[in-house]
Amino acid sequence: MNASLPAKAVAALTEETIFVTQPHLAPLDEFIPYLRRIWDSRVLTNGGPFHQQLEKALCEYLGVQHLALFANGTLALVTALQALRITGEVITTPYSFAATAHSLLWNGIKPVFVDVDADTLNLDPARIEAAITPQTTAIMPVHCYGHPCDVDAIQKLADNYNLRVIYDAAHAFGVETESGSVLQHGDLAVLSFHATKVFNTFEGGAIICPDAKTKQRIDHLKNFGFVDEVTVVAPGINGKMSEINAAFGLLQLQHIDAALARRKEIDAQYRELLRDVPGIRCLPDAGEKRANYAYFPVLVEPDYPLSRDALYQKFRDHNIYARRYFYPLISDFPMYRGLPSAARGNLPVAAAASAKVLCLPIYPTLTSDNIERVVGLIADS
Ligand code: T4K
Same domain for 60 and 145? Predict the structure, then answer.
């Protein structure tokens, strides 16, 4: 015991570390037979059997028509924009992970930031129209935290102005509304299977598209533009998912329902324990029929005794690594902040949310005791 440290600090040193998430992993033993098949066949990549099986299995699980696997979600976003030949200006949200807007810059497209809705923190359809110019070609909304955007209002605007819609659905694996999978909306939707996501293949991603012709173009684009040994139809990229990742995805899929069920319990426990804590507001769902509980964001309001950043630091002092997703806003990063649409006055709702939000730990192996520990620190301020 270190005599020079106060008792509280010593206690914190011995507390188990809790991160905002922990990757969900199928048992290692179950993965060995998959590895053996890869070793035996020596097919490591380039659309091998596991890749084909995972595409099929995910279409069935998610209830979508066509899906192209990628090495990660960011390459999938970059390729989705290429697939639809998007140019000029694209309307998007500042309240997301950097990859959303970065995919536009990688395509030489100008992002135009539009503010979010205060209840869902998703792109506010009521503000989109004013941002449309003759250069606008598409809208890239994000189903933030897995909560569905107002897909009908967005599609109506897109139809009126002849715009394409590409959803960044990185958080929205398995989410359903009354009309079925939320991933069916838009011209394309992009998933991430990163380690931190609800469904992970270590790294990975996918584009969901409604027709076979678009899927074929995407498949060409993710393989350098090759159609056959001698024919290259586009300046494609290497976006392919390897056989190891695809095989792992097939195994992970067998365990996903149990993982989602546990996430649902954790979400319910947090909501119950936080219900009467003054100044802490849980984000409501956005009308999902089946949610995925990908994140557990709370908003630290002015009547809470600590600022959001003080609470964030208090957690860290107790080995709990909650995260401020999404702070700073994308529009505040140096490569975007000079854009007229990045001005703070244009994005008041997103700016306020970014200053208040804290994402609490949520992942299937998080114990009830640890949830109580997290809430205990919030309630005891
Ligand atoms: N669009 C949206 C809306 C996104 O949120 C993302 C990714 C993308 C597009 C791009 O998709 P990808 O290209 O990534 O497929 C994390 C993830 O790296 C990122 O994938 C994710 N969004 C973003 C919201 O969160 P960081 O910087 O918070 O990651 P990191 O490494 O700090 O991880 C958070 C915690 O998770 C760690 O404190 C511990 C735990 N962890 C993480 C990793 C990577 C593990 O326990 N094991 C691990 O392997 O960005």
Answer: yes
